[in-house]
Amino acid sequence: MNKANRTVKWLVFAAVVAVAGAVSLAAVHASTTPLAVTCSSSVSGNVVTWTASPTGGNSPYSLLWSGDASVAGSTSTVITATYGTNGVYTADIRATDASDTVATSTCSASVTSNVVATPTSTLSVAVQMNNTAGGSATSSNVTVSVNGANATPGTFPGNASGTAVVVDSSSTYAVSVSPLTNYNVTWSGACTGPLTAGQSAACTATETYVPPTSTGTPPPVMPRFNPPMLSINPNGRFLARGMIVTSVASGSFQAQVWGVTYTVNWTGNVWGREFPEFYFRNGNSGGIVNPTQQIQVGDEVSVSGLVSGSAPLVVDANVVRDWSIMAARPFSSSNSENTSSGENSSVFPGIGNGQGNGRGNENGFGIGAQATGSVNFATRLSEIMDQIKNLKNLMHGRFGR
């Protein structure tokens, strides 16, 4: 063997040894780093990026995705998928190396950015007006509110035909209206919820006019001159002091004593009189006057007369005295029946007083004396004493003292 041949053989041997060493090192490396694969996900809105990362084993690697329908069957290392529904999605990755070794892994992603449409229902809200008792308000004078259930619209003017309101199904709502003076509201229909998906319902608010209760003008606070006193005998004779006038009408007035309101008439024939005698606080007589022109709400009066046979709280007056005025109030020229002529008349309930025409008037309970027109002082004094005696006897019989 020549030198050249020896050299070639040596080179071949060295190459074989090198290849064998490389194979041996690769075998050692494969045995110490097994094949593995991982997967991960990143979410942006409703887009998910899936990524596979194989390691170890003997490359090259082959990949296969499964699990989620958006990635199943793909062999790419990176996959992008778009999801139209919120939820948690799962993907499986399978990696196979050159030596047919298999490794698997699973990963997931949560999608929450999709706007989910909420089922809705429709509510028709109507406002009806009941003005039978005299009101004039209209449906548009009322403001309607639908609170809750994401109501659209939530506030709007009332409408007799109804306003359509969209509400979220299965959510609670309540309909209300703004207050309307002198009106009471009643409800009918589906005025509180919830409603089921796709349901159509109606709510009606009925506004009914209620006339305000008239309390009248409160009587003014006046000084009182007499404590309240009331006496009615079995014959219906009526005597009251300290009455407070609460209203004045044509032909009568109302006055209260001891919490009871009496209607006092001054028209009619009571003990021979067409109109009652009328007196003022200072004792002067107003003659036969129409009390409408004298009595006012809040006045303190005393009344003598007869209880009506048909109504226990109605009195036909014989004598009326107004303690709140010293003399007659101004009266119209049409008051032709005012014939005031007496002076120094007696104090209510009265003792007969001689007037300028010499005719004595019966005051109080009709115990007045008849003057003759020309009497001396002694005769007049005697008559007055007799009247006082008669009054004393009458009061003793009525009140037991």
Model description:
This protein has 401 residues and is mainly β. The chain has 3 domains: 36-111, Sandwich (Immunoglobulin-like), CATH 2.60.40; 120-209; 229-399, OB fold (Dihydrolipoamide Acetyltransferase, E2P), CATH 2.40.50. The chain contains 2 helices and 21 strands. The strands form 5 sheets. Strands 15-16-17-21-20 form a 5-stranded mixed β-barrel. Strands 10-7-13-12 form a 4-stranded mixed sheet, with no helix packed on it. A 3-stranded antiparallel sheet has the order 1-2-4, with no helix packed on it. The N and C termini lie far apart (180 Å).
In the CATH scheme, the class of the largest domain would be Mainly Beta
Structural class by SSE content: mainly beta
Mean pLDDT: 77
How many domains? The number is 3
* Separation of the first and last Cα atoms: 180 Å
**Proportion of residues in extended strands:** 35-45%
Shape: rod-shaped
Radius of gyration: 56 Å
Helicity, as a percent range: 10-25%
Please report the number of helical segments.
Answer: 2
- CATH homologous superfamily of the largest domain - what is it? Nucleic acid-binding proteins
- H/E topology pattern: HEEEEEEEEEEEEEEEEEEEEEH
Characterize the largest beta sheet: strand count, sense, and whether it forms a barrel.
5 strands, mixed, barrel
| Count of individual beta strands | 21
Fill in the CATH topology of the largest domain: OB fold (Dihydrolipoamide Acetyltransferase, E2P)
Strand order, largest beta sheet: 15-16-17-21-20
